[in-house]
Amino acid sequence: MRLSKRGEYGLRAMIMLATPSADGRPSVLQIREISQHEQIPGKFLEQILLSLKNAGLLHSKMGVGGGYRLAKPPTEISLGQIVRILDGPLAPVKCVSQMAYEPCGCPDEETCGLRLVMGDVRNAIANLLDGTSLADVTQRVHSLHE
Amino acid sequence: MRLSKRGEYGLRAMIMLATPSADGRPSVLQIREISQHEQIPGKFLEQILLSLKNAGLLHSKMGVGGGYRLAKPPTEISLGQIVRILDGPLAPVKCVSQMAYEPCGCPDEETCGLRLVMGDVRNAIANLLDGTSLADVTQRVHSLHE
DNA sequence: TGAAAGTCTACTTGTACTATAGACTTTCTT
DNA sequence: AAGAAAGTCTATAGTACAAGTAGACTTTCA
Fold first, then answer.
1. Which DSSP symbol is given to A2?
2. Can you say whether residue B48 is alpha, beta or left, with left for phi > 0 and alpha for psi between -120 and 50 degrees?
3. Within 10 A of B128 (CB to CB), how many other CB atoms are there?
4. Chain B contact for A93 (CB, 8 A cutoff)
5. What H or E segment, with its residue span, contains residue A44?
6. N or C, where is chain A less crowded by C-beta within 10 Å?
7. Average of pLDDT values for A118-131?
8. Which of B83, B89, B75, B92 is nearest to B11 (CA)?
9. What is the model's pTM?
10. How confident is the model at residue B146 (pLDDT cuts 50, 70, 90)?
11. How many A/B residue pairs have CB atoms within 8 Å?
12. Residue A122: is its pLDDT beyond 80?
């Protein structure tokens, strides 16, 4: 039940980008800033941010003074979206996946014990991750800092 | 967030072993019976059952008329135990694992946003899997068959 | 005694994750 | 116009682990 490094790094980067800067304006950060702060190999992070950009979650600007910023308000980006882009389906087994269903070959899927339970697991994970936005995370972190 | 084939096959086999036979006595099954019924490569299943046996979840008998049976009543074996034996920790990241904690290197673990959320995910998975016994599964399947 | 079962260890193979490399494009500043 | 600062894109290397295979060994019973 592991989250890959891609997923982990991507989430860290997105959380960092969602964290309000001192002046309250949306953060614009460069790859290097994120990779240094979060201890992520730069070239690897580059790929990850590119995927998130191509998926529409980030905007970027090239050239001097460029960098990355969130494409939408942090309230509208869920952790579930991020993980799905970087790591694929949340479901533990494909036969309970919403986004990448595949039959598992058991005689009767409707009454397969494993499937019943894994469906519950999938839902628990999905509810949590889809129900938590970047704003929720930064809010929670902020309230711990008081 | 994937369950490995080892984990999947192991769960399937344990559920099959937990399913009450017609006479109501504990099932004794041979590797071949399980592997045929569940479409699992025999030699692979062999290893899996051996792990579960060495972990104390199964008893076996060698020789003619031998086979595997659960070492405890199905009410006392949780899916969480099985998955941990075959796939390791349930936690998505090591820094929230109860059984295999490892620091992730973030500046302050107590206020790390990723850690907060992944802790929730871990708990959701663990509550579900540790709270579901083999008996719960077979019971659920049985009630669907009416 | 031999067939039927589990035991144990090693090996192979494939694949996916992680990371690195390098050449390219865009943008700003001077 | 030039050059530095940033992101873009594709390929590839390395590694680890999952999945599966092989085979020789041991125990049990008829």
1. P
2. alpha
3. 20
4. yes
5. helix A42-54
6. C
7. 98
8. B83
9. 0.95
10. confident
11. 101
12. yes
| pLDDT band (50, 70, 90) for residue B21 | confident
- Joined together, the tokens standing for residue A37 give 């702060």
Contact present, A31 and A38 (Cβ < 8 Å): no
Residue A116, pLDDT score: 97
CB B71 within 8 A of CB B26: no
Nucleotide with C1' nearest the A46 CA:
D7
Q: ∠A89-A94-A99 over CA atoms, to 5°?
A: 45
Strands A67-70 and A58-61: antiparallel
Residues by CB within 7 A of strand D: list them. A 30-32, 43, 46-47, 49-50, 53-54, 60-68; B 4-6, 9, 41, 43-44, 46-47, 61-66, 87-88
Give CA separation, B17 vs A39, B20, B46, B68, B80, in Å.
47, 8, 14, 8, 17
